[in-house]
Amino acid sequence: MSESTDTDVIVVGGGLVGLAAAAFLAQHGVRTTVFEKHPTTSIHPKARLVTVRSMELYRSLGIEEEIRAAGDQGNGFVIGQTLSDDLSTWIAPPAEDVESGNLSPTSPYSCDQQVLEPLVLNAARRFGAEVEFDSAVLGLAERADHVEATVRHAGQERIVSAQFVIAADGAGSAIRRHLGISMSGTEVPGRSVSAVFRADLSPALRGRFVDAVFCRAASTFLFARGNSGDRRWQMGTYVRPDWEGRPTEDLTDELSGLLRQATGLSDLEPDFDDVATWSTGAFVADRFRSGRIVLAGDAAHIMPPYGGMGGNTGVHDAHDAAWILAAVIRGDASHRLLDTYERERRPIDQVIVDQALLRSRKSPGQKEASGEIDALTLALGQRYGAPPGEEFEDPHEPSMADGTRAPHLTWRDGRSVHDLLSRRQFTAIVDGPITRTDSRAEFVALGRGDVATGQRDLWANTYGRAVGHLVRPDGVLAGEFEALDDVPGLIDRALHIR
Description:
Layout: E1 7-12, H1 16-27, E2 32-35, E3 49-50, H2 52-61, H3 64-70, E4 77-80, E5 88-91, H4 96-99, E6 109-110, H5 113-126, E7 130-132, E8 135-142, E9 147-153, E10 156-167, H6 174-178, E11 183-198, H7 202-205, E12 212-215, E13 220-225, E14 232-238, H8 252-263, E15 271-285, E16 289-290, E17 293-295, E18 301-302, H9 310-330, H10 339-360, H11 375-380, H12 417-420, E19 426-430, E20 441-445, H13 456-461, E21 468-471, E22 477-481, H14 487-494
Parallel strand pairs: 1-2, 1-10, 2-7, 4-12, 10-17, 19-20
Antiparallel strand pairs: 3-6, 4-5, 8-9, 9-10, 11-14, 11-15, 12-13, 13-14, 15-18, 16-17, 19-21, 21-22
Helix pairs in contact: 1-5, 1-9, 9-10
């Protein structure tokens, strides 16, 4: 790594995606500095769902159990006339095969973003990343071999240099605009209002645990915030015509009335912590990289919040970008590897944005729309480099194709194959005796007798198809081999050395 710059990677934006990028980069041993203009991590709940793939990535950072302690399992999405009435399932909780460990060593979870972000921040700092709050990046200047950022903190400006920049500065990304990168897509008509409030809804709940509910009587969504015993909730609804142009703080009487309708509690007196109006759309940046600057998260794609896909997709962007930048910074890879970030992520992100838009157009209570891809496939079935229309596959039937996630199997001692993968190097999974033929890979023996008894047929249909399989540092398959001497060539190919 070069010591001629102040840091290796500057991450602009210390929200969930920026902090995740810093954690993944620092885990690779990359000097990383995050600049966030706000004084702290997010104080708003924002997203709540953590998909199974995101939980796998957080597991790799060592914070899975912290997330479980801070959040709750969730029980899907229910619907009813009011919260006081009988409720029926709209969107089911996580699939049973995920819970039973057949597809992953972990499972989806619910954790409010303002609770999750500090956990990711702590992980980033444990790995050595520097995170500066109250620090605004005023501009970037790209040079031949580095990027210079003008940073303002406490009224003082300074120049910070880095080999690369990850722009995780949100949907209104100033960096994306500075680079002249357009976004393609469509607006979602209308405006919405969300409000965080505190109230005792136990008379309506009657001992039931509700994670998310749509109340038909008021056309209003309610989301539990915090652990299940908290009295903190978030409501979401559309902006009524006579609300347009009014300050959000003037809407609390109308919102209180809607909450009484939604909950069926005529004497409810909620205390509001925050009220905000917003609009959304479905857009994807036309390019995900310009020179030494990479876009991630909302800077690269904007989507309706339905399905909780936005933040999770951004974390997956960050994970892909991290191993690529680390390999280039270390000098292990050709700069041509940088081109793979857009080639891999943009088609996947486009499909996910389209799926979020499709879900946003469903009627409340509608189970499934034509063309809808299930959440489990979106999380675990991504296929980098696949032909158009084939970007996802059924995770129950892994193809073992290059560019797909290495499937989970349970090791005979109870660990997952994922727990055996190297976080910084390639991993060669071998059915048979091991002779290490390349210092850039860890070699792991995984024969039929090494996996749990109940998963040996799955082994035969996945890792048992060849003598060995190469896995990239991001947990994605990079080729199969019949001889250990083939491993160096596969690594060279994956790093675009030849």
